Amino acid sequence: xxxxxxxxxxxxxxxxxxxxxxxxxxxxxxxxxxxxxxxxxxxxxxxxxxxxxxxxxxxxxxxxxxxxxxxxxxxxxxxxxxxxxxxxxxxxxxxxxxxxxxxxxxxxxxxxxxxxxxxxxxxxxxxxxxxxxxxxxxxxxxxxxxxxxxxxxxxxxxxxxxxxxxxxxxxxxxxxxxxxxxxxxxxxxxxxxxxxxxxxxxxxxxxxxxxxxxxxxxxxxxxxxxxxxxxxxxxxxxxxxxxxxxxxxxxxxxxxxxxxxxxxxxxxxxxxxxxxxxxxxxxxxxxxxxxxxxxxxxxxxxxxxxxxxxxxxxxxxxxxxxxxxxxxxxxxxxxxxxx
Length: 339
Description:
The protein is α/β, with parallel strands linked by helices. It contains 7 helices and 35 strands.
């Protein structure tokens, strides 16, 4: 498998500096690339790796052109990371065709009352239950389960072990025990959605859980019942979204982030990894709720100090009042007049 630099630029654009006939035999990161590989520089902070990289050619932004040229061949483009993504797509399309496989693997179990589009592909050991619908060009890898009445749109990709439409976590307390709340909704997934391995999306309690077009979910994500995720949002591995939360369009959630139930995130909200969202966020922006890691002894001291912040605030305000209040004003009036 190989592609020339000239053929890549002819198909994808970009400004080539170097031999158009140079053959690329693989794609790789800067630090591991060999003289037969194409690589990319997505952020200026990694330019030290660029200087020492053995890659045959590197995809860079216009700002990195001079540095890249001092090293060797390069392709200059406004969005190097996006360009590299498209190179990977081109590379995959150029691979030798795989052996012809049936659209539906013989081991898959599909209910007679389910609908699977003739252009969909269902992998080994998948289960598609009654009333479920699978759209055109959607691929279910092995061991995917689609619960009853759930809908998956077109051109979706569900990786091994995904579960769509398990019961949401709903129980009512009853004299020390738990009474199950039947989950009567379903899951509706739009077009061009990708869902990573072993991710679970629960069916709604009354209304449907909704995943809009273009959403990308990583591995091991839990989406609770009645959650609504807007178009083209992306959630990294181990994110948990509790029931009835709403995530807007074009949001990103870093790995391990948690969104508590019944909260809402506006469009274009970015949540840092391992953050816990404890309130609704109404404005676009980048938000972080993370206590930095430290050696355990220092962490325990800082954690103990946090417990006293409220009382320290009151003591500071009392001192400020004494410093700023004119003589003769009583404590009772100070407290009454405080905003």
